[in-house]
């Protein structure tokens, strides 16, 4: 059980700074997910932990050891790559044994460890095949097996599910979560898919443009996003954002008005509000089709258990809200929408969430 | 025929159409006129008594081949050629791979050196041999200077029975090392970087990485380079003719020079054709042997 600690880490490629002065503590045994859009620096950060990129500044510690100065093989980490990176000319058994052979592990011990890992991942019948004879899902398991046999202090996953089809991806998610429960080893998982982050993470590290936007449990990140970016990136469908004007204070809380005139009472304290434009953020499930603002249905997305309705308000802005799976609605139909102000967020002009 | 798929133009996939022949005709004509006919003609000639001055005087069966065996010079040319192939092919594979490994990066220095090493390939054999005649000049050439530096006596490899053939091999490797190097570079660049990263995390040393990742990944290219070089080097001619003229005492005379001299100096076309068939058989055997070896290594 080892904690991972990043201290003021920066990374520059030429004049481009992709990671800026980043510090992060990942407690021992945690399943941390780096979540962010392409190019936010999350993979670079993982590669610096692995030793495949050198930080331009800062330190990385794993347990009591500073690891950013030692070679990748000596860091006590194992990595599962996006494209698996299995050695194509070696059998599954040789792929899994390669790392152990290189550090002079006795033959019997290698055999035992490979057999155990193969058993755990149900790939024992594949041990004598080559990667080219395996399906994507099987290759994925071998790549995980290759990491497990090394008994690392931390596992690093670089978008390992992105090459799998949807069904296999959700199955592998569950298996990884179970693997983590069983092994209790620190795991760092990089993804741009917020569903993967929400379902597997102990804590999510949301990243944007080389900086950490928020660190929190999945529900913290979902319910209390620290910035507008986090609010928009986490959750499906994305949160609705509407420009609002401040109208009054009621019981110490802010009341705002949408462009179509609808007033919404929020729980955001009225004092200390910044000057400048405000944005209201509200999730689909917090808009209810009862008495309220006039709107007109423009798109109906049926997902089975629920239906997403996209509707235009009178001023032309579009919002999305939830209906039951079997709702009867037609495109063009007028609806009236009520906004649950108690669950709404307000964002200042700098994109930060306003709270009391 | 069961409903072939029809395209918009009406022609069908899988349907034989006389007009389709037109598309392959240019290639077929070149293949037949320039390759198959001469090959057949050569095989036929090797069983004939055909003199360029006297013309055709009938079939002689295997006489030409028997005469080759009894010839005072021909068996020596076979030996010289095989030795030359045995020296140069491993050199092309080994040195070509070494250069490719050393220059496989994006540094400016490496791209300049890649161009330098490939540069000599564009020179004609006359230029190359001219340069190396100067290098091999006794007492004054570059080779003599280098030998003097390490305290050895200068000697003329061109006139040495032992060193004439190796001297030609050195010229040849210097001349066309660019092609194997380029083929190896192309193969190295096909290896995914992720494999090397995985190997680094797997604690592989540089030597282990070379042996366990790089070499197995380019095994096919190694086989291709070996076969290409075997076929090319069996056809040694220009360098030997221009540097040593086949001497001293026939110790560097290759098969192709023997064929050339029999056919175009002594005008015995049938005899020369028979020698050509021996060369053809040797090249075929060597190439097949190499392919068999590399395939066996894969299993």
Task: Please tell me about this protein's structure.
The complex is a heterodimer of chains A (356) and B (299). In chain A, the strands form 4 sheets. A 6-stranded mixed β-sheet of chain A has the order 6-7-8-3-9-10, with helices on both faces. Chain A has a 6-stranded antiparallel β-sheet with strand order 13-12-11-14-19-20. Helices cover 24% and strands 37% of the residues of chain A. Chain A has 356 residues and is of the alpha+beta class. Chain A has 8 helices and 20 strands. Chain A has 2 domains: 222 residues, Rossmann fold, CATH 3.40.50.300; 115 residues, Nucleic acid-binding proteins (OB fold (Dihydrolipoamide Acetyltransferase, E2P)). In chain A, a hairpin with a 2-residue loop joins β9 and β10. The model of chain A has no long low-confidence stretch (mean pLDDT 91). The two termini of chain A are 37 Å apart. Chain B is mainly alpha-helical. Chain B has 2 domains: 42 residues, no CATH class; 224 residues, MetI-like (MetI-like fold, Orthogonal Bundle). Chain B is 68% helix and 3% strand. In chain B, β1 and β2 form a beta hairpin. Chain B is globular and about 75 Å long.
Quick tags:
heterodimer, A: OB fold (Dihydrolipoamide Acetyltransferase, E2P), 2 domains, B: 299 residues, mainly alpha, MetI-like fold, 14 helices, 2 strands, globular
Following the backbone from N to C, one meets helices and strands of chain B in this order, namely HEEHHHHHHHHHHHHH
Strands of the widest sheet of chain A, in order across it, are 6-7-8-3-9-10
Reported for the largest beta sheet of chain B, the result is: 2 strands, antiparallel
- Major sheet summary line of chain A: 6 strands, mixed
N-to-C span of chain B:
42 Å
Brief overview:
Chain A is of the alpha+beta class and 356 residues long.
Topology at a glance:
The complex is a heterodimer of chains A (356) and B (299).
Chain A: E1 4-13, E2 16-26, E3 31-35, H1 42-50, E4 57-62, E5 65-66, E6 77-80, H2 92-102, H3 107-120, H4 136-148, E7 154-158, H5 166-183, E8 186-191, H6 194-200, E9 203-208, E10 211-216, H7 218-223, H8 228-233, E11 240-250, E12 253-257, E13 263-269, E14 278-282, E15 287-302, E16 306-313, E17 318-324, E18 334-339, E19 345-347, E20 353-354
Parallel strand pairs in A: 3-8, 3-9, 6-7, 7-8
Antiparallel strand pairs in A: 1-2, 1-4, 4-5, 9-10, 11-12, 11-14, 12-13, 14-19, 15-16, 15-18, 16-17, 19-20
Helix pairs in contact in A: 2-3, 2-4
Chain B: H1 21-45, E1 48-51, E2 55-59, H2 63-70, H3 74-102, H4 108-119, H5 125-135, H6 142-149, H7 164-176, H8 178-190, H9 193-201, H10 206-217, H11 219-233, H12 238-243, H13 255-265, H14 269-298
Antiparallel strand pairs in B: 1-2
Helix pairs in contact in B: 2-14, 3-7, 3-8, 3-11, 4-8, 11-14, 13-14
